[in-house]
Design a protein that fits this description.
By secondary structure, the chain is an alpha+beta fold. It has 3 domains: about 90 residues, Orthogonal Bundle (Butyryl-Coa Dehydrogenase, subunit A, domain 1); about 100 residues, Butyryl-CoA Dehydrogenase, subunit A, domain 2, CATH 2.40.110; about 160 residues, Up-down Bundle (Butyryl-CoA Dehydrogenase, subunit A, domain 3), CATH 1.20.140. About 45% of the residues lie in helices and about 15% in strands. Strands 1, 2, 3, 4, 5, 6, 7 and 8 form an 8-stranded mixed sheet that branches. Keywords: Oxidoreductase. This is Acyl-CoA dehydrogenase. InterPro entries: Acyl-CoA_dehydrogenase (IPR050741), Acyl-CoA_DH_C (IPR013107), Acyl-CoA_Oxase/DH_mid-dom_sf (IPR046373), AcylCo_DH-like_C (IPR036250), AcylCoA_DH/ox_N (IPR013786), AcylCoA_DH/ox_N_sf (IPR037069), AcylCoA_DH/oxidase_NM_dom_sf (IPR009100). Pfam families: Acyl-CoA_dh_2, Acyl-CoA_dh_N.
Length: about 400
């Protein structure tokens, strides 16, 4: 079978992602049961160019803006949240590439459809050895690891068994990111969760694997081409697109159900019931304001970075707006889905209803670090010149 060439523009990829949504919705139960993405769906995403969103055009990638990436993630998540989540994770490969030496990165990623998965938090131990590191550890939440080409893992650096301090004295215990071929990683089949069940976010282990120095990096050193996507916070910007896509799907579904229902006790069309009308309107208002907040924050950030500026050039309020907007999006999307679940009452509770899955997916997404109070603390601390707990949410490393 001849495969259709990948999308060549943002508009084309967004259109394709929207066209895939009905098929993804139909296969959601299968995806959940498998607990990771079916290979043919991964191939479809790859063939359409989803994983090249963040690769620069000099790589043959699409180099989508943060706002365009958000639309792709939303469209795929409208069909299935786990697919949207894995697409978002895998498309970050092009971001990581700019923190590597360009020659090395080209060898590691011979085409812009490569997929990287893994956990960036430094849960591993990397012992310095000649030419690189010996990496060992266990990491949770390896979303998309089953279909990845490379696995990225954060680790603290040691030398001769002692904590390794950065030579410039900036860090008493240095941590780095390490890239390892997928076949050198052992996946632990323990992803059996409430929601995002199809994301395959299993734990994984790496045992005494040699990682060449050039296959490691830190987010404070861009070695490729600088630009809006070669930033420490870039991999976090579109996560909330998954929740927004699910909330949009729930809103459209609820309206369709309302148009079909009649109150059994009174014979009144649901569309004529005041409670129904107010709930739908309130949820739409919350969705519109939330999504506009996310897009507005991304647009302001992109405007500064695309003009050659850096994150420090942003006004503190504008810089804090991005992480604040995504936390709000995670939480508000969950609230919208829960209110619609209650609105539809017993029509929501069956496994055959997508409301059941959307409730579980948004509840699970809200447990991610990106949706936690630590992000609020970091933004709030930044606004008053105090120390953020999770500075990378603001692009601070």
């Amino acid at each position: 079978m001849t495969r259709e060439p990948a999308a060549t523009t943002a508009a084309e990829l967004i259109e394709r992602a929207r066209a895939l949504a009905p098929m993804l919705r139909e296969r959601s139960a299968e995806i959940e049961q498998l607990r990771h993405l079916p290979q043919d769906i991964v191939d479809t995403l790859r063939d359409n160019g989803v994983f090249r969103m963040c690769f620069g055009k000099h790589w043959g990638g699409l180099e989508l803006t943060s706002m365009e990436q958000l639309e792709v993630v939303e469209a795929l998540s409208y069909g299935d949240a786990s697919v949207g989540w894995c697409a978002m994770i895998g498309s970050n490969t092009g971001i990581y590439a700019e923190f590597l030496d360009p020659v090395v990165a080209k060898e590691m990623f011979p085409n812009p459809d490569q997929i990287v998965a893994g956990l960036l938090q430094p849960s591993g131990r990397a012992e310095k050895v000649p030419g690189g590191y010996r990496l060992s550890g266990r990491w949770p939440f390896g979303s998309g690891i089953h279909h990845a080409d490379w696995v990225i893992s954060g680790g603290f650096v040691y030398q001769d068994g002692e904590k390794y301090a950065s030579p410039d004295g900036s860090n008493p215990h240095e941590s780095r990111q390490f890239l390892v071929p997928r076949d050198q990683v052992e996946v632990i089949d323990n992803w059996d969760t409430t929601g995002l069940r199809g994301s395959g976010s299993c734990d994984y282990t790496i045992t005494d694997v040699f990682v060449p120095e050039e296959h490691s990096f830190s987010f404070d050193n861009v070695r490729g081409r600088r630009g809006p996507l070669a930033q420490p916070d870039a991999f976090t910007r579109t996560m909330c697109g998954v929740s927004l896509g699910v909330a949009r799907a729930a809103l459209d579904y609820a309206r369709e159900i309302v148009l079909q229902r009649v109150d059994r006790m009174t014979g009144t069309d649901w569309a004529d019931i005041w409670r129904v009308q107010v709930t739908l309107a309130a949820c739409e208002a919350d969705f519109n304001a939330t999504r506009a907040g996310v897009r507005g924050a991304l647009e302001r950030q992109w405007e500064v970075l695309a003009a050659g500026g850096v994150l420090d050039d942003l006004d503190p309020v504008d810089r804090a707006a991005c992480p604040l907007s995504w936390v709000h999006a995670f939480r508000m999307s969950r609230s919208i889905v829960n209110r619609l679940f209650d609105l539809l009452q017993t029509w929501s509770i069956h496994r055959s209803s997508p409301m059941d899955r959307w409730m579980r997916d948004t509840a699970t997404i809200c447990q991610h670090l990106a949706a936690q109070d630590r992000i609020l603390q970091s933004a709030g601390a930044y606004l008053v010149n105090a120390k953020p707990e999770f500075g990378i949410a603001l692009g601070i490393v």
